Each structure stands twice: as C-alpha cells, then as structure tokens.
Amino acid sequence: MIPWQYDINPINVDALRVRFHTSPSPELCHVLQSLRKSIIMQFPESIQDVIPAYQTLMIQFQFLQLSTDMLTDFIEHTLQNMEYLPKFSPKHHQIPTRYDGMDLHRVASLCNLTPEEVIQLHSGRQFTVYCLGFLPGFPYLGPLDSSLFLPRLKNPRKQVPAGSVGIAEHQTGIYPINSPGGWHIIGTTDVTLYDPQHPDQCPFEVGDIVEFVPIFFNSCK
Fold first, then answer.
1. How many Cα atoms are found within 13 Å in the side-chain-facing hemisphere of 75?
2. Is the pLDDT of residue 221 over 80?
3. Which of 13, 70, 92, 203 is most buried, with most CB under 10 Å away?
C-alpha cells in the first residue's frame, strides 16, 4: 500500500486523473511511472496516453472500450498492492553545460553569491525530472538549492535560444527550442532535448536523474 492519500477523478468522458496528496519526490515519480506502466500493460488497446507530472497521473482512454469505473477499480487495486507494480529504473543524464548565460552575473548578485558559487550550487547536485511540458521536451527539474531561489522574470523575454539552461523559483530547466521564456538563464548546452523525427522525441522521462557538468568557466572572469 502506498504511504500517501490520493484521489481519482474523471476529467472528461475519456480522461481520468490520479492525484497524490504529497510533495513531489523521486519516490513519488517512481510510483507514477510504475502505475503508468501497469495501466498500459493491462489495457494496451484502450489507453491513448498516460502522462505523469509532479503529483498527478493523467490517463486518456477510449471510452467506448474502457469504462471509468473499470479503470478506477484497476488503479485502486494496483495502488493497494504496490509490491506487484513493475519497477521503474530512472536513467541518469549528464548535461555538458557552458555557464555563459546572459543572467549568470545578475543571478549571482541577487543571491549574494559569486558566479563561481552559483555554478557550484547548480552543478553540484542531481535533479529529478518532475514534469515535461510547456514546450515539447522542456524538463522541470528539482529541487534547486534554496540559495538560488528567484522568482520568474517580471517581463518574460520574447525569445530564449534553444539549449538555454535556466532557473526559476525552486526549479531548473532547459529550453529545447527557441521560444519566449521568463526564467533566469545561467548557461547553455548543445544537448538535443526535442527531436520530432526520433521515436522517443525527448531523452528524458519523469523520474529520471539529471546532472549538469560544467565544461568551462570563462563567464566567471
């Protein structure tokens, strides 16, 4: 049995949401992914999509083939028998990062840190992928060291280049494509995060581990 309370609610005739009443954590990510795999394995012909994010799992299904009650009963039974869930094995991604972002020095000043300390705090920990969204392949990673907590920009930029590494509030993330954005940009990477021609499109899954690896420090001088 899982240690958290949860609720299961229909969102539409063909969508159901499971919400856990706990804070995001690696352990919860593993439960979300394991439950996701169980649902797909049990109803391979009826499930359209299963999307984990933070504390929720959204399930879209063919309502002419699968009823809300049947799906709810299966989820309830599965969560009461955790030992039978398929195990989720997170992948570990190392992201080579140039800490040359346009906001690095401003972030350091706002946080009463040196640029070198910002880099050490950002690259010196492993982040969990809590959600993918906003843009295809955009990973919401956390938790960020509390010394780096900053609100989003009051005036978002009209254009942030693909590969920009940003921070905002308690999270960090990577822009997969050129887009508007309101996060503080502290670095850049050449890693491709969204490829519509690739079967998986994005290298990350919710629950994966991401580590930023500095590849030079010229921006600090």
1. 27
2. no
3. 203
pTM of the entire predicted model: 0.92
Clarify whether residues 119 and 207 are in a common domain: yes
Q: Is residue 135 within a helix (H) or strand (E), and if so which, with residue range? A: none
Q: Whose structure tokens read 């670095």?
A: 187
User: Which tens digits make up the pLDDT trace of 118-173?
Assistant: 999 999 999 999 999 999 999 999 999 999 999 999 999 999 999 999 999 999 99
Q: Are 66 and 169 in a shared domain?
A: no
Same-domain check for residues 69 and 169: no
Strand 157-160 relative to strand 92-98: parallel, antiparallel, unpaired? Answer: unpaired
Percent of the chain's residues with pLDDT above 70: 97
Any idea what DSSP says for residue 22? S
In a domain, 1, yes or no: no
Neighbours of 30 (CB within 10 A): 19
* HEC per residue, 56-116: EEEEEECCCCCCHHHHHHHHHHHHCCHHHCCCCCCCEEEEEEECCCCCHHHHHHHCCCCHH
Task: Give the model's confidence band at 2: pLDDT under 50 very low, under 70 low, under 90 confident, else very high.
Answer: confident
Task: For residues 159 and 18, give the distance between their C-alpha atoms in angstroms, rounded to a whole number.
Answer: 35
Which amino acid does the sequence have at 131? C
Q: What is the mean pLDDT of residues 43-61?
A: 97
Instruction: Look up the domain containing 15 and give its range.
Output: 6-84
Residue 219: what pLDDT? 43
Helices (H) and strands (E) in the chain, counts: 4, 13
Residues 185 and 98 in one domain: yes
